[in-house]
Write a structure and sequence with these properties.
The structure is a homodimer of 153-residue chains. Chain A is of the alpha+beta class and 153 residues long. In chain A, 20% of the residues lie in helices and 45% in strands. Chain A has three helices and eight strands; from the N terminus they run βαββββαββαβ. In chain A, strands 1, 2, 3, 4, 5, 6, 7 and 8 form an eight-stranded antiparallel beta sheet that branches. About 5% of the residues of chain A have low confidence. At the A-B interface, strand 1, strand 2, strand 3, strand 6 and strand 7 of A face strand 1, strand 2, strand 3, strand 6 and strand 7 of B.
């Protein structure tokens, strides 16, 4: 098994294929990790969520980490880790265009019935709650790939 | 699509099936998420890693989050989130038995060629580095499951 660091271009390629990842946020030294579906465009990650713990936490501490992987087998996988900053696309006139853009991008997804996106019967996301649209502005991105051969491709 | 909270027993069931998860740690308000393979036994998660960023961070701040999911389709999935505490099984006489136990458990895995477990050619995990064995003592665990029917099973 050969493992190597991915170049910036390869990281971008992997990112553009990804739609499911794990988002880490932190509050008071406690990390919290949740699965999210998203759309990536130009080092911006777009997603939405019902109100809840991760939104509460990211509003207080916008520093996040997004991890994505594509595991074909234990000896054939790619993993990308990006630091980023949460930016809520609030429902205010100044951000109307950005929200509309996010909405269009997210509509291209096959389904909305996904982890983190659906209202669950509990106090934080009850009936009538409005989804939060947000963007993650990606910073430093690193990646690794494992394969059975030493081929670069 | 029906989404519901899992009971404690169901969370344990999902945990016992899992071997791949995402581990979140945090330092100075920056979260960091990496994929790890592990073995679960009695609310303890056993894993090992070459030296590197996540080990450095968890030694400073042992508060972690472990997230696992089993996604069959966007409308059929289970996701478990557990908070936990990093406990390094150091190579000292007092922990010899615990290390041996962890080693035996981890040997039952099909392969060691997995993310986070293999030396990569870079300063933090070069040739000759020794793997770090560690345990995560799980605290509060929550889980959700989505399915096409409202059946409890």
């Amino acid at each position: 098994v050969f493992i190597r660091e991915l170049t910036a271009e390869e990281c971008d390629q992997e990112l553009s294929r990804a739609s499911l990842g794990r988002l880490g946020c932190a509050l008071d030294h406690q990390p919290y990790v949740v699965p999210i579906y998203f759309v990536v465009e130009d080092h911006h990650v777009y997603s939405f969520s019902m109100p809840g713990k991760k939104i509460d936490w990211m509003r207080i501490n916008p520093r996040v980490c997004l991890q994505m992987d594509r595991v074909t087998s234990p000896s054939d996988w790619a993993s990308i880790i990006a630091v980023g900053r949460f930016d809520e696309l609030r429902d205010i006139p100044e951000r109307r265009e950005e929200r509309a853009h996010a909405y269009r991008l997210l509509q291209t997804r096959p389904t909305w019935w996904e982890p983190g996106s659906v209202p669950v019967t509990r106090p934080s996301g009850g009936v009538g709650a409005t989804p939060i649209f947000y963007r993650i502005d990606l910073g430093h991105i690193t990646g690794q790939r494992a394969s059975q051969t030493s081929n670069v491709a």
